[in-house]
Design brief:
91 residues; alpha/beta; four-stranded parallel beta sheet; two-stranded parallel ribbon; 1 helix; 6 strands; 25% helix
Length: 91
Amino acid sequence: MVYNFYQAVSVNLAGSKDPEGSILAPLSGVIGGYGQMHGQLVAGSYSGNSQFDNVQFTGNVTPVPLPAAVWLMLSGLSGLGAIGRTRKAAH
């Protein structure tokens, strides 16, 4: 789980709550409580007593195929290049 607080200026992790995920708060000052957190923290600053455990990502990321429009554009550009080369060779 990813908690994205991209516009927050402060985040308070009160008590011993473990969100079991990554917290993204790059502009924020984060205040931690006590206990431990399983995940990563990206923050502008941090103060508190929380223990952070680095949990490696074990998910599966599948590649996203190129959309058909990209293939059509590439084939059109290569066709224009071929026309340009034949016109240049004819002169």
